[in-house]
Structure formats: C-alpha cells, structure tokens
Amino acid sequence: MTTTTTQQDLFVSTGLHTWNQAITRATAFFDACTDEELEKTISPGKNRVVYLLGHLTAVHDRMLPLLGLGDRLYPHLDALFVTTPDNPAATLPSYRDLRNSWMTINQHLTDALKSWTPEEWLQKHTAVSDEDYAKEPHRNRFSVVINRAGHVQYHLGQLVLFKK
Amino acid sequence: MTTTTTQQDLFVSTGLHTWNQAITRATAFFDACTDEELEKTISPGKNRVVYLLGHLTAVHDRMLPLLGLGDRLYPHLDALFVTTPDNPAATLPSYRDLRNSWMTINQHLTDALKSWTPEEWLQKHTAVSDEDYAKEPHRNRFSVVINRAGHVQYHLGQLVLFKK
Fold it and tell me: Ranges for the DinB-like domain (chains A, B) (predicted)?
C-alpha cells in the first residue's frame, strides 16, 4: 500500500465485496427454493418467502434513481412488495418473472458499481439536497450500497429460519 | 470535498456510521425486552432472544484480538453462545451481566474505531497472514467492522419476528 489512490481503492473494494457477498448469499437461497417453497412463510403468520424476494427486488430497483443510474425497471413491484404488507390474496407476477427480475436488477447495479471511481462512489445520492450533502457528506452512494447490503442480510436472517 | 484525505475520511465515516447504526438498533431492541422476553424464542423451535444477545456479545468480544485491540474480555461466552447451539438446560450468566457485557464490549470497540486513522482502518486483521494480505488486501479491519455490522443486521431481522 504505497499510494493514497490504492488506499481509496481498498475502501471501494470492501464496499463492492460486501454488496457482492450479500447478493450471492440471497441468490443462492432463492435458487435453492422450489416454487412451492416460495409460498411458505418464514415463520408462522409472517411474510412468505416470495414476498421477501419481491421486496428485495423492488428495493434494489429503487436504487437506480437513488444512485443516479436512470429510471427504474420494475416500478410496478412497489405496490405489491413495498407499500403494502404481504397479502396471500394479491395477484403476483409469475415466480419465473420475479426470479428473473431479481437477477437482472442486481446484475445491472453490480455492473454500474464496478465501473465507479472512488470519487464516483462518494457522490451524493439523489434523495439528499446539495445543502444537506454539504453538511452530511456521508449521505453518498457508498453509504447507500453498504446500507442495502445490510438490508439483504436482515432479511436473509429471516429466510434461513424457514430452511433450517 | 477538496482533498484526498477528506475522501478517505468519508469512507471511514461511512464504516463507523454503519457500525454505530447496527449497535444502536440492536441495543434498543434488547433494552426494550424484559428478562422474561429474553427467554422467548424468536420463532417456534428456534433460538431464544437471550441466546442471540450472548451470541452477538461473544462475536463482538472476538473482534478484540482480531482487530489487534488486545485480549478478550469475555472468552467464557464462546462455549455457551458460539460453539454450541442454544440449550435451554445450560446455566447462563445472569441477564444483568449479559446486558452489561453487551454494552461494555461495544463501547470498548467503538472507542477504538473512533480513534483510527484511515491507514489504521486498512491494516490487516490478525487472522490473515502477511502473505495472504499482500494478495488479498481487502482482508482488513474496515472489512471486519462492516461484516460484523451485517451480522448484527442478520440477527436483528430474526429478533424483530419475535416482537412484531
């Protein structure tokens, strides 16, 4: 570690590693679930596995505008998986479509993350004003990505209860 | 953001913020639990809340030698909360002692984290050899802290199932 640039790259690579690890673990979990298992609840009276698949997909889709990466791919998922609790009577997209959306949004995000310079990682996210960012410069893209990896971990802790 | 040093400080402050947020949320959860609630399981047949309190405390205690911060404070917790699954027949420390240990170890760690320069955050953790660190420089203290914050999130996702 001889240059400052290298040090910044190390912080960035830790952020990317944290994100990749969370996505890899969650994807392995969902891939190991049959469609029948997606319909099970993680615990009696709690969310179904498919709700958490849709929820994580929708939350990651919301990262596109938040990180300044363009328009959302799946805005229709919010009404089913973010703004309302799990409702077994609701008509969901096909499980195949949901699984594909999960893969697509994560690949899309990961490709963008891998292309960023340290400076780009530290740009403010779009939900914070220039004024607030000047006062709270930790409200940046790096922070968003670490936070969302933690959100995946949070729900993974719940998902494994169903499998164990 | 005018200097490179400032940029490094931003990565560091995100790491510290992530750690603090996880500790604050978990502490608020445990503080809101009565001793009777600590004995409840998070879900039928799964870990008791007190097991997760002891588990998180022990795992954080293990961070002391891993981060080069000296000897452990509570090595006796491992046999109860890390190397064996939850056993309601085991004799545990008093809940008061466990709650105090959780507060003490986190304060101890947080004080150290707050004192580190960016260079100190990027030092290798002690479980990686010099040779491996040369090849995999992301195996550093920053990575350990982010990882353990994610571990707290993972178990928080489970703990809230009991409260909801």
Answer: 20-159
* B25 within some domain: yes
Domain holding B126: CATH number?
A: 1.20.120.450
Helix (H) or strand (E) holding B155: helix B141-163
Q: B45-101, pLDDT tens digit by residue?
A: 999 999 999 999 999 999 999 999 999 999 999 999 999 999 999 999 999 999 999
DSSP 8-state assignment for residue A48: B
Give residue A154's identity as a one-letter amino acid code. Answer: Y
Count of structural domains, chain B: 1
Q: What is the CA radius of gyration of chain B?
A: 17
Closest listed residue to residue B43, CA positions, set A135, A85, A114, A162: A162
Rg (CA), chain A: 17
For chains A and B, count residue pairs whose Cβ atoms are closer than 8 Å.
Answer: 110
Instruction: Test A154 with B151 for CB contact under 8 angstroms.
Output: no
Residues of B within an 8 Å Cβ radius of A: 1, 4, 7-8, 10-15, 17-18, 22, 42-44, 46, 118-119, 122, 137-138, 140, 142-143, 146-147, 149-151, 153-158, 161, 164
* Contact residues on chain B for A158, CB-CB shorter than 8 A: 157-158, 161
Query: Which residues of chain A have a pLDDT value below 70?
Result: 1-5, 163-164
Q: Is B124 helix (H, G, I), strand (E, B) or coil?
A: strand
Provide the shortest C-alpha distance from residue B124 to chain A (in Å).
11
C-alpha–C-alpha distance, residues A147 and A134, integer Å? 20
Query: Mapping DSSP to helix (H, G, I), strand (E, B) and coil, where does residue A90 land?
Result: coil
In the DSSP assignment, the letter for residue A77 is: G
A6, part of any domain: no
Task: Answer yes or no: do A137 and B18 touch at CB < 8 A.
Answer: no
